[in-house]
Amino acid sequence: MKSENSLMALFGGTFDPIHYGHLRPVEQLTQEICLEKVILLPNNVPPHRAQPEASAAQRLKMVQLAVAGNSLFSVDDRELQRDTPSYTIETLETLRKERGTDHALAFIIGQDSLLTLYKWHRWQSLLDVCHLVVLARPGYPRQLATPELQRWYDAHTIEDASRLRQYPQGFIYQANTPLLDISATEIRQRRHEGRDCSDLLPFSVERYIESQGLYRA
């Protein structure tokens, strides 16, 4: 079924803390695929990775500070209202119901997440509710782990970004976004060592981290 509506994208993450490696590729992506809105979805309890150092309230505040005054972004804190693991597919299914069946919906992930997507809860259902838009990551291969996964990827991948707007879900698009070698792990490590992080994240977020005493040794 074709959709003549605008394309809305969702970008989830632990954001512990949010940084330029999250923001700048997404900002460039909006130009590449003509996005009107990106909704940031901070995770509460990531089921497949270590627990965040910052609290849910602190991570939400950092995300809000990072995009304050930027009309491209909005923040959805629904996953932070849960006290159970955050499963992406369940959140996306809820958002699909809210948006309706005809609206184009995309979920933004990194190449690192694409390579481990088969470990996600009900990952095979993701393309039933949204498109996947993949951001490049430094040092990660383009080839998936098994021939079966590669066939799944090849069967759904498109090169024409306009098709993301024409259909509500079902495609994978590999974006030509910049390779920024920045990670939250690196930022936390720098903080633990008392090193400067001002080149890696917005000043408002850095100031909040200082005020909260986050990521100290």
From TrEMBL:
Q: Does the keyword Amino-acid biosynthesis apply?
A: no
Annotated InterPro entries: Cyt_trans-like (IPR004821), NadD/NMNAT (IPR005248), Rossmann-like_a/b/a_fold (IPR014729)
Which pathway does this chain act in? Answer: Cofactor biosynthesis; NAD(+) biosynthesis; deamido-NAD(+) from nicotinate D-ribonucleotide: step 1/1
Keyword annotations: ATP-binding, NAD, Nucleotide-binding, Nucleotidyltransferase, Pyridine nucleotide biosynthesis, Transferase
Superkingdom, natural source:
Bacteria
What residues does the Cytidyltransferase-like domain cover? 10-190
**GO molecular function per UniProt:** ATP binding; nicotinate-nucleotide adenylyltransferase activity
Q: Which GO terms describe its biological process?
A: NAD+ biosynthetic process
- Please name the top-level EC class of this enzyme: transferase
Give one Pfam family, short name only. CTP_transf_like
Reactions that this protein is recorded to catalyse: nicotinate beta-D-ribonucleotide + ATP + H(+) = deamido-NAD(+) + diphosphate
Q: What is its EC number?
A: 2.7.7.18
- SUPFAM superfamilies tied to this protein: Nucleotidylyl transferase (SSF52374)
Q: Say if the entry is tagged with keyword Nucleotide-binding.
A: yes
NCBIfam families referenced in this protein's UniProt entry, alphabetically:
cyt_tran_rel, nicotinate (nicotinamide) nucleotide adenylyltransferase, PRK00071.1-1, PRK00071.1-3
According to its UniProt entry, what is the function of this protein? Catalyzes the reversible adenylation of nicotinate mononucleotide (NaMN) to nicotinic acid adenine dinucleotide (NaAD).
* Family designation: Belongs to the NadD family.
Write down the PANTHER family for this protein, in alphabetical order: NICOTINATE-NUCLEOTIDE ADENYLYLTRANSFERASE-RELATED, PHOSPHOPANTETHEINE ADENYLYLTRANSFERASE
Q: What name does the UniProt record give this protein?
A: Probable nicotinate-nucleotide adenylyltransferase
